[in-house]
Amino acid sequence: MKVHSKGTKAMLAMAIVAAPAWSGAVAQDQTAPSEEVLTTVVGVEGPKIEGIITARNEDRLQITTASGTTTSVAVNDETRVRGTGGFLGLGRKSLGIDALLNGLPVTVETWQSGATLVASDIRFKNDDLETAAMIRNGTAQRFAANEQAIGENKIGVEENARAAEALRGRLGDIDQYNIKGVTNVYFASGRYQLSGKAREKLCAAAAEADAIENSLLLVVGYTDSTGSYEVNQRLSEQRAGRVVNYLQQECSWKPFRMLTPTGMAASDPTADNSTAAGRSENRRVSVNILVSKALDRFGDS
Fold first, then answer.
1. Is residue 119 part of a domain?
2. What's the number of domains the chain is made of?
3. 176 & 271 share domain
4. Looking at the domain assignment, is residue 161 inside a domain?
5. pLDDT digits (tens, 9 = 90+) for 5-33
6. CA angle, 276 then 197 then 242, to 5°
């Protein structure tokens, strides 16, 4: 056990000295200046630790060194916290301890008290403190923004779900609709990319449908007769899916006002598949504007 002479009350407190229990544990040097008490403390000096604060839990810090080793160190009111510009907190040590942020590189002098390492002196660079503070504040802002966005998105999803459920409730078992309009967009052979003209027509169809009360959109994809059934079925579904995505993402059509899209392969041709012109007419997606007859005030009774 080592014996250390310290001229500070801080080290006496961290050594947790009990003078009556340890004979000769504390002796006052009568020749020392009157403004300072020289104490002799019985205890064990702990290791010097250099690393980054990686966790903070009330009066405990976790310091991680460059090698990845982690050490738990206790802090208390007597722990000195110093930046490159001197003591922090305008004389209030608690403010200095509060400055010990996660991500802050520090050098820690310790004192061994039983099985516990107590920090006697913690030093860091003020620039590092500013960086750690900016990271903390930026992270807090991002968390707040994410939580707000998640909350708003949750509200939006719930509103859409309620609207869709209400719409399904109104439709119930009704399976008959009045067709209020049909817009066809066409595709190159074997492709499902939208042309500029197709994009214009889709947003125009969405605007037309939006002006009709209780309207829904039904999107159906088709191909010409070239190719196998499996290829044509997949291609017709891809064309229908591309149209649905564009209507929702670019034309602001609400998903709950969209009936389930479908691909019909080469069935229901509108023209003769034996000619190039006819096949061109059959490579299409039909966007149908529908209103349930039970909800269509101008529909058939």
1. yes
2. 2
3. yes
4. no
5. 443 333 333 333 333 333 333 334 444 44
6. 85
Q: pLDDT tens digits, residue range 90-99?
A: 334 444 666 6
Q: Is residue 23 part of a domain?
A: yes
Residues 220 and 287 grouped into a single domain? yes
- What's the domain range around 25? 2-128
* Residue length of the chain: 301
119 and 177 fall within a common domain: no
> Could you tell me if residue 11 is inside a domain?
yes
List the end-to-end C-alpha distance of the chain, in Å, as a whole number.
101
Residues paired with 50 in a beta bridge: 107
